[in-house]
C-alpha cells in the first residue's frame, strides 16, 4: 500500500505516523523549511512535539513526488481546502482523495466532500472523520473512525488501506451525515467549553450536549443525512469527545470565551467559521439553531456567556 498525507499539521502527521506501521508513507509539508526540519529532527516539533517519526515515514515538500502514491489524504483546515485544491488541481484531477478536515466552508455552506467535487469534478472522494485526537493516534492509542464514501467499491478499498494497528475504520455511504456530524460537533464544543469556562456547571454542559445533538440532527436530517450516521462515531462519538476534553481546541476556545481570556489566533479552531456557515445556511432553510446562534454571538462579542445561557433558558417551553 502506498499512501501520501498532504498537510503536515498535527492531524496529518499523526495519521502518517500510524499508517507508517502498514508500509511506506509520504508526508507532504508545504514549506521546504518545515519538511527539512522534520526529516532531520524526525519530529514535528511545532504541531506534534514528543512523537518520533517512524523510519517508514518520509517528509517532503515535493508535491509531484508526494502525489505519485495511490491513496492521498488531505489534512489541511476546512477553510483552506478550496485554495489547496485550486493550487494543485493538475496533480489531483481524477485521483482518489480522502479529506481529513471537519467543517463547513464559510462562503458556500459546503462540506469537504462537496468542496472537493466542486473544484475537481473527476476526483473520487471520501472523508475520514470521527473521535480522534492527533496525539492519541500518534501515540498508538486505540481509535475508531468513520470512512465515508458514496461508492462502495472505493469505500471498501480505502477502509482496508487506512486501517492500522490502532485505527479501526467503520464505513458509511452517508457522506452528508459524516460531513455534518464532524462539522457541527465543533460548534457544540465551543458552547460547552464556554459554559465550563464561565463556571456554569456540569449539568449545563450535559444539557448543551444533549440539546446540541438535537440541533445537529435537525440540521443534518434536513440536509439529507441518515439518523444512524449522526448517532455514530462521526456525530455522537465525536460530540462526546470534543465537548468533554480540554485536548480539544474548539473546547479550549470556549473555555477562553467563558473566562474572558485571549485565545491564540494561530490555533486551528474549525468550529468558529463553521458556526457562522451553519447559522447562515440554517436561516435560509428556516431551521432553528439556537445554540449555534449563541456561539456566533459569543464569538462576535455580542453575547456574554451568562446572556447566552439566559437566552437559551428563556426560550418557549416545548416537548423534548
Ligand atoms: N488535531 C486533531 O486532533 C484533529 C484534527 N482534525 C482535523 O484535521 C484538520 C487539520 O487540523 P490539524 O492538522 O490539527 O491543524 P494544524 O493547524 O495542526 O495543521 C494544519 C496544516 O495545514 C497546512 N495548511 C494550511 N493551509 C494550507 C494550504 N493552503 N495549503 C497547504 N497546506 C496548508 C498548515 O501548514 C498545517 O501544516 C482540521 O479540519 C481538523 O478539524 C481531525 C481530527 C483530529
Ligand atoms: O476533531 C477532533 C477530535 O475528534 C479534534 O478536536 P479539535 O479540533 O477541537 O482539537
UniProtKB/TrEMBL annotation:
Subcellular location: Cytoplasm
Tagged with keyword NAD: yes
Residues that bind sn-glycerol 3-phosphate: 102, 130, 132, 185, 238, 248-250
Catalytic activity: sn-glycerol 3-phosphate + NAD(+) = dihydroxyacetone phosphate + NADH + H(+); sn-glycerol 3-phosphate + NADP(+) = dihydroxyacetone phosphate + NADPH + H(+)
Sequence intervals crossing the membrane: none
Biological role: Catalyzes the reduction of the glycolytic intermediate dihydroxyacetone phosphate (DHAP) to sn-glycerol 3-phosphate (G3P), the key precursor for phospholipid synthesis.
Protein name stated in the entry: Glycerol-3-phosphate dehydrogenase [NAD(P)+]
Lineage, highest ranks first: Bacteria, Pseudomonadati, Pseudomonadota, Alphaproteobacteria, Rhodobacterales
Gene giving rise to this polypeptide: gpsA
Amino acid at each position: 500500500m502506498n499512501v501520501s498525507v498532504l498537510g503536515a499539521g498535527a492531524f496529518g502527521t499523526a495519521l502518517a505516523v500510524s499508517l507508517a506501521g502498514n508500509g511506506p508513507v509520504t508526508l507532504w509539508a508545504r514549506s521546504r523549511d518545515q519538511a527539512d526540519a522534520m526529516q532531520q529532527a524526525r519530529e514535528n516539533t511545532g504541531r506534534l512535539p514528543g512523537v518520533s517519526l517512524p523510519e517508514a515515514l518520509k517528509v517532503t515538500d515535493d508535491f509531484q513526488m508526494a502525489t505519485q502514491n495511490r491513496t492521498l489524504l488531505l489534512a489541511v483546515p476546512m477553510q483552506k481546502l478550496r485554495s489547496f485544491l485550486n493550487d494543485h488541481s493538475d496533480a489531483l484531477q481524477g485521483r482518489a482523495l480522502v479529506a481529513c478536515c471537519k467543517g463547513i466552508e464559510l462562503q458556500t455552506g459546503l462540506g469537504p466532500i462537496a468542496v472537493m467535487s466542486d473544484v475537481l469534478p473527476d476526483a473520487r472522494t471520501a472523508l475520514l472523520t470521527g473521535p480522534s485526537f492527533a496525539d492519541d493516534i500518534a501515540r498508538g492509542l486505540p481509535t475508531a473512525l468513520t470512512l465515508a464514501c458514496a461508492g462502495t467499491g472505493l469505500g471498501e478499498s480505502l477502509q482496508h488501506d487506512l486501517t492500522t494497528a490502532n485505527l479501526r475504520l467503520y464505513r458509511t455511504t452517508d457522506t452528508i451525515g459524516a460531513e455534518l456530524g464532524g462539522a457541527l460537533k465543533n460548534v457544540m464544543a465551543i458552547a460547552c467549553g464556554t459554559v465550563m469556562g464561565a463556571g456554569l456547571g456540569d449539568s449545563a454542559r450535559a444539557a448543551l450536549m444533549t440539546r446540541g445533538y438535537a440541533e445537529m440532527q435537525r440540521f443534518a436530517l434536513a440536509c439529507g443525512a441518515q439518523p444512524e450516521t449522526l448517532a455514530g462515531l462521526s456525530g455522537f462519538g465525536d460530540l462526546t469527545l470534543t465537548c468533554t476534553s480540554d485536548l480539544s481546541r474548539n473546547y479550549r476556545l470556549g473555555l477562553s470565551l467563558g473566562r474572558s481570556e485571549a485565545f491564540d489566533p494561530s490555533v486551528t479552531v474549525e468550529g468558529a467559521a463553521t458556526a457562522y456557515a451553519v447559522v447562515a445556511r440554517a436561516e435560509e432553510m428556516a431551521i432553528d439553531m439556537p445554540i449555534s446562534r449563541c456561539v456566533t454571538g459569543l464569538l462576535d462579542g455580542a453575547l456574554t456567556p451568562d446572556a447566552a445561557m439566559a437566552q437559551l433558558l428563556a426560550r418557549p417551553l416545548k416537548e423534548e
